[in-house]
Amino acid sequence: QALLYARGTYGHKPKVPVDADRLYEAAHKVMSPKAWGYVAGSAGRNRTDKANQDAFSRYPIIPRMLRDVSRRPMGVTLFGEEYASPLLFAPIGVLEMAHPLAEGAVASAARQLDMPMVLSTQGSTPMEAVAAALGPTKFWYQLYWSSSDALAQSLVQRAEAAGAKVLVVTLDTHAMGWRCMDLDEGFLPFALGQGIAQYTSDPVFTALAADRVAAGTRSLAPKQAPTLAAVWALASIIGHYPGKWWDKAFSPAPRAAVDTFLDVFPCPHLTWHDLAKLREWTRLPIVLKGIQSAEDARLALEHGVDGIGVSNHGGRQVDGAVASLDALEEVAREVGGKAPIIFDSGVRNGADVFKALALGASAVLVGRPWLYGLAIDGAQGARDVMARIAAELDLTMGLAGVAGVREITRECLKVPKVG
Ligand code: FNR
To answer: Angle at the Cα of 8 (from 5 to 11), degrees rounded to 5?
Structure first.
């Protein structure tokens, strides 16, 4: 905040809009209909996505006066590690739909801010390369548990070896939600070979795909990707977004790998008992992402997980589900401080982060906003969006009379307590 205002905003009109609604509109303009539908779309009639964002209006902040707020430390400790702020880049897959540099651009943004990234299993760049690009900036790894345990184990162990600090296991996406925009466009990015770089760089997956790979492919080979990325970047600079043909032409993985991915993708058979396997595979702290009820939070703790991820995937899975923020307080009561709560879904600005922290979150993942920034202005855009959310959180604390993130409590909000 100090940086934003001390240097002055006068005369500087940013390329990436500050306002969340204008950011959304600006991203819409630069993305192809398919990419936009995939990124901005949610499940069914988008009711959960809307509910996620609307919920924040029901928890007003009570500003307090005449408190010394000249220092407002933002640091938090999570799973024994120090972090500069409670903000993280949420795991988002298929980033090449927003920008050809994908995780490379986000890693650059994250490194500039020293703000951790949660790397997606549906990544467009092998995790080892992203870890290298992040340098000293910490990262967590998000697992989609495929129907092959050997593959899931391999991904987890690669992440641990690459230096991940936490394993985030996403539970709510054992199948894709009913996404009307994608269905109308006839679009599934993975079917084009997008977002499967963690798999194609994995020895277990490669073995699974060997037969099909040997059979050959009609898709473009991965070695052509840099050339296409350069053409894309040039076209973007001269102001022509080549999204339509890009979506058709670009398939970074051989057809056989795509088919193998589609084979191992769904895993609806998983139950609480399977979590024990994770403990055998890794020593990393485990966070379950997708918890939306006190009962599941209790089960998670009973099964020995280290953190609770309160999330409904940005409303992309179940249409008409409970707003993630409404689930948060109930979950926080159940957890009772026994484990960190990592919140996401619907966060659009710094005041939203403040409210989530007040309702019991230990840290907050931001999803679509930085993705929109990435689509508009690459690394700089993603960086700007996250820097502003942090700046607005800092300013909100100051103006609400709260001297740091650790001081944000339930008493900062005017709402009846649950129960
Ligand atoms: C996601 N999300 C997601 N989550 C995850 O665990 N693994 C993933 O690969 C992805 N991929 C993904 C792609 C896209 C395009 C979106 C929009 C979201 C969900 C993400 O981590 C987070 O839960 C939501 O984005 C949070 O909601 P908001 O901030 O977008 O409202």
So the answer is: 140
pLDDT in tens, 202-236: 999 999 888 666 665 444 445 555 666 676 566 55
Could you read off the pLDDT of 351-365 as tens digits, one per residue?
999 999 999 999 999
For residue 417, is it within any domain? no
Length of the chain in terms of residues written? 419
| Alpha helix ranges (H) inside 75-115 | 102-113
C-alpha–C-alpha distance, residues 50 and 323, integer Å? 8
* Residue 356 CB less than 6 A away from ligand 1: no
ipTM of predicted assembly, 2 dp: 1.00
259, 267 contact by CB (below 8 A) = no
Is 25 among the domain residues? yes
- Name the domain count of the chain: 1
Is 419 within a domain? no
Q: Is 344 in the pocket of ligand 1 (CB under 6 A)?
A: yes
Report the amino acid identity of residue 402: V
Q: What is the pTM of this model?
A: 0.93
Check: CB of residue 322 under 8 Å from CB of residue 29.
Answer: no
Sequence-separated (6 or more) residues with CB below 8 Å from residue 252: 96, 124, 193, 194, 197, 220, 222, 225
91 lines ligand 1 (CB under 6 A): yes
Strands 363-366 and 341-343: parallel
Q: Which domain holds residue 278?
A: 2-412
Any domain includes 269: yes
Picking from 109, 105, 87, 85, the residue whose alpha carbon sits closest to that of residue 95 is 105
- Please confirm, yes or no, whether 240 is among the known catalytic residues: no
CATH at 325: 3.20.20.70
